[in-house]
Write a structure and sequence with these properties.
Layout: E1 21-26, H1 32-47, E2 51-54, H2 60-70, E3 75-79, E4 97-100, H3 108-113, E5 117-121, H4 125-136, E6 141-144, E7 157-160, H5 163-178
Parallel strand pairs: 1-2, 1-5, 2-3, 3-4, 5-6, 6-7
């Protein structure tokens, strides 16, 4: 079976009990090189056997979701809308499990406090709010090409310039958090 999922047939996704959850947060709009970084991060998260969590929309969220989805991973999304009042583009077509909140931007708290590790890619105010909530929750944040943030949190905020650096930090943090 190839790694491309056919949406018209049932696919089996295997996830271990109490899986490691990696949140990938970023903006609705991003240049192509950022979207490619997000897609590669999503794919790597899935290939490592982790569950991907995003905000479920376009841009970085969709690119990361697509990478994980096509690699056979499980994609969760915490959405700003609800079933009664859906927002266009939510959830994107690569989300396996959509959590409808009806909370608008307040859902950023859930996105930030749920994962074991967050990878923030590019982004704007929403991403910055998710970074802040994650750090207040002692959730490590890997910042890949995000706006500059100078905080006294030391090891909790790890700035990276490349996807490879971000993935190396993810692998290191999985060991730390799992121990």
């Amino acid at each position: 079976m190839n790694n491309q999922k056919d949406p018209d047939i049932m696919q089996k996704i295997e996830v271990r009990r109490k899986p490691f959850i990696v949140g990938v947060m970023g903006g609705h709009k991003a240049p192509p090189e950022i979207l490619e970084d997000a897609r590669r991060i999503g794919e790597a998260v899935a290939k490592r056997g982790h569950v991907l969590l995003t905000g479920g929309g376009d841009g970085v969220m969709k690119a990361a979701s697509e990478g994980a989805f096509r690699a056979g991973g499980l994609v969760l999304a915490v959405l700003p809308s609800d079933r009664v009042r859906p927002l266009a583009g939510y959830p994107n077509e690569f989300v396996d499990i959509a959590i409808q909140t009806g909370m608008a931007d307040a859902r950023n708290v859930i996105n930030a406090k749920t994962p074991h590790v967050m990878i923030a890619i590019d982004g704007g105010w929403g991403t910055i709010s998710e970074i802040a909530h994650a750090l207040r929750n002692d959730t490590p944040v890997i910042a890949l090409k995000t706006p500059s943030i100078d905080l006294p949190h030391g090891e909790c905020l790890i700035a990276c310039k490349t996807v490879e650096d971000a993935l190396a930090q993810l692998d290191r943090l999985v060991k730390v958090v799992s121990d």
